[in-house]
Amino acid sequence: MRDSARRLLLALAGTVTGHPSSPAVDGAPGFGLPGLTGAERPRGPWEAIATTRAPDLPVERVTFVALEDGTLVVDDDVPDGSLVPLAEAIEAELAPPYEAAAVRDTEGVWAVAAHEVLIAAAEPGEAETVELARVGGERTAKVDGADVPALSAPAGLLALLDGAEGDAALTAERLDEATWVAERWAL
Question: Whole-model pTM?
């Protein structure tokens, strides 16, 4: 499972159970736990949250990436079409591409959350993870955790970084042999 998918799943599981993955005990009434004395339920790192039923999905939790063409890429072995109800619920609020995490509750209702991602073409043999930054016009790069010259980073990811104005950062993980899934933000 990709690191970004694992983080999303942990954050979503905390939201569904009402216990954030690392609750803040700040002395406020209810100790900052959702559901106690007015503490807010955390939304997590996503732009869309929905609930739905997905009766053909045989797992308890799942992560997937929806590509712009509607393709759903999932690491787990699930029946064809079983993710469609989850994708349809999210796409009422958020258009692809996005990364989603979903958790089934004890009543069989799925909570699904998603956040926008960027997609870039990958070449065979390229790295598994890439971190890029541009500050003051100077680019830096880490590929699989090692510092490398920025121009040696995957071209598609450099193009995504260059698509941002001003100082920016980008992290990416290989989705499959031909695809990068990335997040980019202004610094």
Answer: 0.76
